[in-house]
Amino acid sequence: MNPREAAAAVVDPEIRVLTIDELGILRSVDEDPATGRVVVTITPTYTGCPAMDVIRADIRRALTAAGHPDAEVRTVHAPAWSTDWISESGRAKLAAAGIAPPQPVRAPGVVPLTLSVRCPRCGSPETEQLSHFGSTACKSLWRCRSCSEPFDHLKAL
Amino acid sequence: MNGPFEFTLGLGDDALIAAQRLAEWTTRAPEMEEDIALANIALDQLGAARLLLTYAGELEGAGRDEDALAYLRDDREFRNCLLVEQPNGDFAVTMAKLLFLSAYQLPLYTALAECADERLAAIGSKTRKESAYHLDHASLWVKRLGDGTEESHRRMQAAVDQVWPYVAELFAAAPGAPVDPATLRPEFDATVAAVLTEATLTRPETGWAPAGGRDGVHTEHLSYLLAEMQVLHRAHPGAKW
Q1: Which of B37, B45, B48 sits opposite A132 (nearest CB)?
Q2: Does residue B46 sit at the A interface (CB-CB below 8 Å)?
Q3: Rounded Cα gap, residues A58 and A39, in angstroms
């Protein structure tokens, strides 16, 4: 398996339906021409997110299995990760897993038009936020007034 | 010392000590959602602290990593502002502290994202996104409590009065720094004024303005906090996961 496929297959330990490629965490997988070593570049989601250390370990394990034991995982902070980087397939998988995908990130200064967050179970737009902060750093807690089910929403960042 | 070591250390210590105080609310918050929210905010603050302390260690060039800086310094070596080391008090005091801290950190991190120091710019572009949520959270609570019942209004006003003196130190001029905190005061005042007005609260007069944190002179609260935060690492130096 080539290194890019191996790295792209690593999943987020918290949101197990998404790979780090779909989440936009995986920025590049290159071979260092001088040493032949594989360099995987990633950008973290939230600065304090504990899953990032797990992801780094999983990438190393995946690349060792793919025949690159001396692969290096490099972290780059700029440009900062944004939920806009989540792929279309990633958004569909989030909704299918009962997590409302993020809204587009509003550029600062743009008039804030609050789009409704649809319930991932019944699709109703009649939903309300219970708390800005849900079960993980990247999610907020919502409730649907139609089917009255609680659900997580990936915050726009 | 080379580069903005002291400046970076100060910002890292602000976030580290804020994280430690916020984490004290875990299992003690008034409701489950708030317990999770404060833990999440603490985690964001800790994330920023890790980035800043790691960079500070590199700037110092004495081989100190984020753990050495966080766990093996005594209070006189810490450069955090006095605001963050103040005890949590009741929920209103914690929200007053968080409002003033985030109303300071948001413009600071936003300015950092544009500053000349590449590393700090990368950190600023990341942390400003998270601190916007902290400011939003604190503002919502201060408004609810301020414009709430007689009791919540009384407590929220008392909290603002109690914490306000520690604001001045945040904006002490540092002309050589990548971002001079004094330039952030106007935006801070505008943000805070809007929240306090909606919360039907009055902004105290600026009188007594304690300082010293940026020079290692702290209140009696910091050393107790450090004793609790550092004890495990000091009992088992070099322990690794």
Answers
A1: B37
A2: yes
A3: 14
pLDDT tens per residue across span B54-105: 999 999 999 999 999 999 999 999 999 999 999 999 999 999 999 999 999 9
Nearest to A99 by CA among A71, A127, A74, A75: A127
B210 contacts B220 by C-beta, under 8 angstroms? no
CB atoms within 10 A of CB B168: 18
| Alpha-carbon distance values, A156 to A81, A115, B108, B130 (Å) | 11, 12, 21, 11
Contact between A72 and A37 (Cβ < 8 Å): yes
> The complex's ipTM?
0.82
Tell me the per-residue pLDDT of A74-120, one tens digit each, with 9 for 90 and over.
999 889 999 999 999 999 999 999 999 998 887 665 555 567 899 99
B36 chain-A contacts, CB cut-off 8 A: 131, 133-135, 141
Structure-token pair, residue B231: 């004890």
- Give me the phi and psi of A42, to 5 degrees please: -130, 155
Rounded distance, CA A59 to CA A73, Å? 8
The answer to whether the beta carbons of residues A72 and A38 sit under 8 Å apart is: yes
